[in-house]
Amino acid sequence: MAGRANIPANSSALIAIIADEDTVTGFLMAGVGNVDLRKKTNYLLVDNKTTVKQIEDAFKEFTAREDIAIVLISQYIANMIRFLVDSYNKPIPAILEIPSKDHPYDPANDSVLSRVKYLFSADSVASDRR
Amino acid sequence: MSGQSQRLNVVPTVTMLGVVKARLIGATRGHALLKKKSDALTVQFRAILKKIVATKESMGEAMRASSFSLAEAKYVAGDGVRHVVLQSVRSASLRVRSHQENVAGVKLPKFSHFVDPAGGASGGPSGASPSLTGLARGGQQVSACRTAHVKAIEVLVELASLQTSFLTLDEAIKTTNRRVNALENVVKPRLENTITYIKGELDELEREDFFRLKKIQGYKRREIERQMIEAKKFAEEQLAEDLALKRGISMGAATNILVGGGDKDDDIIF
Description:
The complex is a heterodimer of chains A (130) and B (270).
Chain A: E1 12-20, H1 21-30, E2 43-46, H2 52-64, E3 68-74, H3 75-80, H4 82-87, E4 94-98, H5 111-119, H6 122-129
Parallel strand pairs in A: 1-2, 1-3, 3-4
Chain B: H1 14-77, H2 81-87, E1 94-103, E2 106-115, H3 139-246, H4 251-260
């Protein structure tokens, strides 16, 4: 809630990414990538060799880190660890599911959008979308 | 569950009645205020909801544009560009700053992205060490790709702040509504029940007192009546005595004549 510890207003925070290679490359190009002194990165490159365990660990690590404000996660990867994403309910860091190039974006799978739909009648959301 | 258990355990006195009444007034005022807060939050919540849906749409577009520009850049600069990018990551030039916004006493975190001039080894637009990515060929496409991704980040950051606000507000509204309902359905009825209980109890006491007074009054009246009758009887006796004395014959003497004078009178044969 509002009383919880927040990131101080003047400090800068990072954006973490869990996505496929192309998406990660694009965002790194934009300059969100960060490697600290211990060679810890704020992004996870998911390819077909990456295990679900690795993704889970990265997700847990990113959501636990103090200096990360937003976690971007590709939707198809979020689907792999859906139980973790759905059970996560803290406001900071914010989890954002982003569409990836190879997988069509399905708004029904999004944890936040599904909550939006759960809270309000489906037609009011649908009418806003058009 | 209805009458007895739904009230506070208090001594039914006038002081307590005043205290409970003051508490009821406080609870009513608090309820009204919380209701207002809940309404304000709901208005904000709906506005955010609409914005989230709209931003989700624009996020799709921004992501499409950015991945398309990445494809362009890869086509022109060759597939090797990704390795260059992945290798040259040092410190983030594009960072997020968070500040708080206050809506009806609820602090909502808001994010805004900014370019950190100290970072930027991976080639931020205004990085201290400009990247050499795409120096050989396709530099324009690479920078276009970079711009597209920065734009996508802008949208994503906005979406993130909307989403955090959404979650925070959701929680806050739930809490506020719970409080409103608790006040309305638990605290207020309990106080009202207590007030009726105290009033009933006070009335009962008053009736008891009244009855007792009546009882005592009746007893006293009966006593006085009895004494009056006594006094009247005594007065009548007194009067008769007085009358007899005045005639010179005491009531005792009169009887004595009849009884004692018989032996002197000759006329009386028997």
